[in-house]
Amino acid sequence: MTDKKHGITRRGAMQMLGASALLAPNLLGKPAFAQTPPEAPAGRIIVGMSQESTVFNPLMVKIEVDDSVHFSLFDALFRVTPEGEIVPNLATEVPTQDNGGISADGLNWTIKLRDDVKWHDGEPFTAEDVKFTLELILNPDFRSWRTIGHNLLSDIEVVSPTEITWKMAKPFAPYLNFLTETFIVPKHAFDGVEDPNAAPFNSAPIGTGAFKWGSRTAGDNVTVVANPGYHGDGPYVEELVFKYIPDLTVLYTQFKSGDIDLTGRQYITPDNYAEAQTLSDREIVLVPVSSVESIYLNQEKPQFKDPVVRKALYHAVDKASIIDALYYGLPLPSETFMPQASYYYNAELPEHVFDLDAANKMLDDAGWAKGGDGIREKDGVRLSFANSTTSGNHLREQTQQFLQQTFKEIGVEMTIENLPAAVIWGEFWGQSQFDSVIVGINFLIGADPDVTNRFHSDAIAAQGGRGSNNSQYSNPRVDELLIEGAETFDAERRREIYREVQAIIREDLPFLPLFQNRSVVGWKEGIEGVEFNANTRTESWHAAAWYWAQ
Asked: What CATH fold (topology level) applies to the domain 289-518?
């Protein structure tokens, strides 16, 4: 019998799902070390992606997979390194209070820009483009991806083609990190365009990045080509192809056969890790990433308004078996949205306990009574809901089967309603049309701990807000702390603030945390310059450095 308090064995799990088990491999792997890149771009690299990039204006509502293309085509004022350092990109220096770029009170900013940058169509990049970008983000008629932070700006002034200033309504410590993900778009591309949401630019973008727009075959691939006039180092390949392969098993098969050169999101699944390490002429690396896998619960659904229900569901999640049996022990169990390597991580949160007896008792005591079919009900609300995730992600689909069975043992009915990536991560996700979703999210922007965009009540898009609070979570104390944290520059005080935010959210459980991901990434031997950055959302954050060894 299954031990309902301590989980099940891997063998039992695999038998339950009708799958075969493999021994967990050791967690080794080495990155490629750069040699000498070619003098001129050469060759092509095909990146296999399990989700399709469909949003090409980097300022519009998007998901992580779109960043693969955006980081290739566009530049921001600054870039964040794998070590969490913010460095100049389109700017010539990072403004600080010490160098005078930011005033002592944090309200007045001065940004100095490069004078050697050109757009892909040959037009010069200037401060006018930065001003246009910031004002477009704030245009109430434009479908902006993120306005938090930007909405504090006023008096944006172009001092010269290479200098821009603005004022902040109040100090906002995370803003430099926000600017590392704010890609600048060309003002002239929108001249005469009445509706920026329908601009021709949105389907044929013009950037300043290492690659230029090539072509798109919907449902198959996006191709970008080398920008020979790039102001930075690289690019070193002629073409970069983001190939859409929705089934993760097929993606891995095409990596084995050589049809793709490098695995992108969602990478190689843990159940294929052992075999992948035996492949000849392949580099396989285990990469810690900042994304946290969780079960998002829509707080506006009546099934989830009772905190007892959320806590009982968490008790009924056999997290250890999911991690060990399905993911081969690769992920790190987590109780929070904060990456465990972060300075702001709260290591003192209550540890999850899988206990179906406790879950049943909690629901009994709260008046959720079982009906004739064994499903609980209270005040006319049946404890039944749908769970959705990306079709073709077989490990998440197997996780759903785990959940469905253990939830049934506490009188909860969970149906499975999966959707293609392009559908689920559209309005269904962004406008909180789901009951519950299994999703992996990088909650931070760069290395900054601010999560206003994810948890402040003003960031609920489904309620008219601007942000990604898709669980529709609302807690007045969390709102207060997020405001204070964003206005505080002292690292120690910010650490206290975000540790408290984590503690409250762990108590409220707007999402049920499963684990922090460690991705299995693979590429063909001969590809050099691959470097991973947990502070960004894409493996191609610096694809300009990739090249084929000669």
From this structure: Dipeptide-binding Protein; domain 3 (3.10.105)
